[in-house]
Amino acid sequence: MRLRLLTVAFVLGLTTTMLAQVTPPTPVHTAAPAVEFRTFTARDGAVVRFALRLPSGHDATRPCPLVVALPPGAGDEAMVLASMDEYWNAGASRGWAVVSPCPPEGSAWHLRLALAKEFLDHLATLVRPENGLIHLAGISQGGIAAFALAMDDPGRFASLTVLPGAPENAAAFARLDRLRAVPVTMYVGDRDAEFWLPQARATAARLKDLNIECDLREMAGQGHRLRLESHEVFDVLDARRPAVRTARLAREGAIRAVSAALDDFHDAAAKADEVRYFGHFAPDAVFLGTDATERWTLEQFRAFATPYFQKGTGWTYTKVRRTVTIAPGGDCAWFDEVVHNAKYGECRGTGVLVRTDGAWRIAQYNLTKPVPNDLMDELLALMRKADRTPEPK
After folding, report:
1. Is the distance from CB of 191 to CB of 223 less than 8 angstroms?
2. How much is the average pLDDT of 247-266?
3. Are 381 and 356 contacting, i.e. CB atoms less than 8 angstroms apart?
4. What are the Cα distances from residue 141, in Å, to 74, 149, 356?
5. What sign for the dihedral angle of Cα 147, 198, 224, 95?
6. Which of the 8 DSSP states describes residue 160?
7. Predicted pLDDT at 391
């Protein structure tokens, strides 16, 4: 913790004069729809030039995903065009509207947040954002501005993506808790060590301390200007779309719930808690034991286990690792796990759970003892000697 605090203190103590010192990205010419520059005039007379790229056949009355990308450096038209070509050119072909606004001349977006919000209101007359939420992005200086804008008005945004970006200073860093409903993706070069890498790590650590969804991607061998394929960026943005994200979060929640049910199942067995143990089974469940004859219905398995539980003697299998998969419909799951037993060592459990009445129930559990391949011949010889395994024909 002390190291983290020292890192944050060091990073936040740096001046931001270096932030505008960026090299314009090299344009990458693609077949993406042409970028159109438009002008917006604010109520106070401030003029905003912005690049707009719409998907083919765009209908302003229909919602579509919208990313607003704040440009790096001074953010002039040349910088906007270069970054549109390098990072944002894949958006239109994937159904995205992309907007990149130049900050007012001589200023920066993180210093003109009221103007930025007035501009976003204007955008809503041109593009109807999917779910009413905008995906906000920024590069370098634009990444700092993106953090500032997202923290100032988090209810506008579906996600925040920076390449790189970070809170501007200690005061901004202290407001990261305002991003509780905004998932964050941070790209940074692992050689961009003077400011951006330590700041990105400190920011990601703080977001995770706050239980805010954050994905920090350190790009191996890269410095400040990141080399990223546009489709990679939009893979991330597509995953942050509210419907996609909701489905992913539901799947992740189901995986945690299934794992918790299995943990409690094993805990009940270890504590000989019959009621709790059998409460984890579906009514038509089947338990498969390590012996080939052990295929038990729930009633048969209860008859086998009850005498042990009544004596206060259960069995202890401790999870070593587990993989859970949720079926597309969301009401069925299958798993495989390695569990450890003091007598039998590592065993394997596999099975199926179904969700009924809001709870995950075990429909099948199959307990096996894996046999190392190099011991298989010896084991088969022993089993044949005991007439347990027929000779091969």
Report:
1. yes
2. 89
3. no
4. 8, 12, 51
5. negative
6. E
7. 55
Going by C-alpha positions, the residue among 364, 371, 195, 359 that lies closest to residue 264 is 359
CATH of residue 308: 3.10.450.50
Residue 103 and residue 16 share a domain: yes
Longest Cα–Cα distance of the chain, Å, equals: 95
Contact 339, 355 (CB under 8 A): no
pLDDT score of 329 = 85
Domain housing 345: 253-385
Angle between helices 230-239 and 77-87 (to 10 degrees): 80
How is residue 304 written in tokens? 């086998």
Helices (runs of H) and strands (runs of E) counted in the chain: 11, 16
390 CA to centre of own chain: 51
Q: Are 87 and 187 in contact (CB under 8 A)?
A: no
Which has the closest alpha carbon to 369: 267, 262, 292?
292
Beta strand pairing call for 97-101 and 66-70: parallel
Q: Are 87 and 164 in contact (CB under 8 A)?
A: no
Q: Which helix (H) or strand (E) holds 367?
A: strand 359-368
Per the structure, how many domains does the chain have? 2
Q: Tell me whether residue 115 is exposed, middle or buried, using C-beta atoms within 10 angstroms of its C-beta: 0 to 12, 13 to 18, 19 or more.
A: buried
pLDDT in tens, 318-367: 999 999 999 988 899 999 999 999 999 999 999 999 998 888 999 999 99
Residues 299, 219: one domain? no
Do 167 and 203 form a contact (C-beta atoms < 8 A)? Answer: yes
Q: Where are the alpha helices (DSSP H) in the chain?
A: 2-13, 77-87, 113-123, 141-152, 170-173, 196-209, 230-239, 242-270, 274-278, 298-310, 376-385
Residue 247 forms part of a structural domain: no
Using 50, 70 and 90 to split pLDDT, how confident is the model at 24?
A: very low
Length of the chain: 393
Q: How far apart are CA 366 and CA 345, in angstroms?
A: 16
Question: Looking at 200, 216, 240, which one is the last position of a domain?
Answer: 240
Residue 17 falls in which region: left (phi positive, over 0), alpha (psi -120 to 50) or beta: alpha
